[in-house]
From TrEMBL:
One biological process term in Gene Ontology: pilus assembly
PANTHER family: OUTER MEMBRANE USHER PROTEIN, SLR0019 PROTEIN
Major site of localization recorded for this protein: membrane
Similarity remark: Belongs to the fimbrial export usher family.
Keyword list, A-Z: Cell outer membrane, Membrane, Signal, Transmembrane, Transport
GO molecular function: fimbrial usher porin activity
Signal sequence interval, chain numbering: 1-34
Organism: Salmonella muenchen
UniProt-annotated location(s): Cell outer membrane
Topological category with respect to the lipid bilayer: Multi-pass membrane protein
The protein's name in its UniProt record: Fimbrial biogenesis outer membrane usher protein
Length: 369
């Protein structure tokens, strides 16, 4: 009889505990629902007599953003993409503001062609709400930091190498001038005879609106001699730089010479950091949504997730001039496969699909001629 009473008390205690948690979870769910669509009574807010009552409808959908223009940083899936002007406008019912999807903002999102071909994307005009044009997008604007965080599924995006920045976001810098100099004086005495020798080296430049004027020269007892005076301008479409004036050719493969004319040469500084130098391209096939890990000398140098099917990893940072790579594919069911990619490099080796070039034309300059 005693054991039966204890069992009944235990069952009653469990029922009470279950009822308590049910009520608790019900209140939490109600609070969460209220947080997403809250209502406020303006009667509790003080205002100056004679003025209109404060409109609190815009606070019912979370933290509001006042309508206007904001020059902000754009972060896509945790990566900085650039800066542009964001436009926030009041919605049709005037109870909140919406973020307008402008062509400038669209150009920073790296959307693939299938998304851009949609009818709503081709007819962007006026203020198109980003939530209606891209339902999968999750946005959060931080006014205090002038920062817009956008999260988009990888399936909607173009694969960009790590460190990629759109040429439209490149800046030419502010107007500036500089002068570097090297002054040296040497005095020696021989048999009561004293002689001084002085050398002055000059390197100067001027940057204005994307054009760079560069000059090198030196002065000694024989007078002043200019060794290089040229004007330079970047050609983003060719990933290179155009130079006109007095210059020297590159000496990577052969002896450099001095010319007066024009030169067009590639500039690796226009490439993302992950594409500078040489590193092998890794090809593989995943049977499911898999994690790909690449190791070199026992250290992890790259890791990413890929969908089922063939994949390519072409944005490895260069790490020395050799050392085979071990590629580990971890499938969704936990199975792992690995293979080795041989890696050896020389000084001027470039990646597949990229070239280094230099084209020069002009009159040969030697000494004072």
């Amino acid at each position: 009889m005693k054991k039966k009473c204890q069992a009944q008390r235990t069952m009653a205690g469990r029922s009470s505990l279950l009822l308590y948690f049910s009520i608790l979870f019900g209140l939490m769910a109600r609070n969460i629902q209220a947080a997403t669509d809250a209502e406020f009574n303006p009667a509790f807010l003080q205002h100056i007599p004679g003025e209109s009552v404060i409109d609190v409808k815009k606070f019912s959908h979370g933290e509001p953003v006042p309508a206007g223009e904001y020059y902000s940083d754009i972060w896509l899936n945790g990566e900085w993409k650039g800066r542009t002007v964001l436009y926030f406008q009041a919605s049709v019912d005037m109870d909140r503001t919406v973020l307008c999807l402008t062509p400038e903002l669209l150009s920073l999102l790296d959307l693939n062609e299938e998304v851009l071909k949609k009818e709503v994307m081709r007819k962007i005009s006026g203020c198109t709400d980003i939530s209606s044009a891209l339902p999968a997008a999750r946005t959060r604007f931080i006014p205090s930091e002038l920062r817009l965080n956008i999260d988009l599924p990888q399936a909607l995006l173009i694969h960009r190498p790590r460190g990629y920045i759109s040429p439209a976001q490149w800046q030419t810098g502010v107007p500036a001038a500089f002068v570097n100099y090297n002054l040296n004086n040497y005095r020696y005495r021989v048999a009561g005879t004293q002689e001084d020798k002085t050398y002055l080296g000059i390197r100067a430049g001027l940057n204005v609106e994307g054009f760079a004027l560069r000059h090198r020269g030196n002065w000694s007892a024989g007078g002043y001699r200019s060794t290089e005076t040229s004007i330079q301008h970047d050609v983003a479409a060719l990933r290179g730089q155009l130079t006109a004036g007095d210059f020297s050719t590159g000496g990577e493969l052969m002896e450099n010479i001095s010319l007066r004319g024009m030169k067009l040469a590639s500039d690796d500084r226009m490439l993302p950091g992950s594409l500078r130098g040489y590193a092998p391209v890794v090809h593989g096939v995943a049977s499911s949504n898999a994690k790909v890990t690449i190791r070199q000398n026992g250290n992890i140098i790259y890791e990413t997730t890929v969908p089922a099917g063939p994949f390519t990893v072409s944005d490895l940072y260069p790490s020395g001039y050799g050392g085979d790579l071990t590629v580990i594919i971890t499938e969704a069911d936990g199975q792992t496969r690995l293979f080795t990619v041989p890696f050896a490099s020389v000084a001027q080796l470039v990646r597949p699909g990229y070239i280094r070039y230099q084209i020069s034309s002009g009159r040969y300059r030697y000494a004072d001629n």
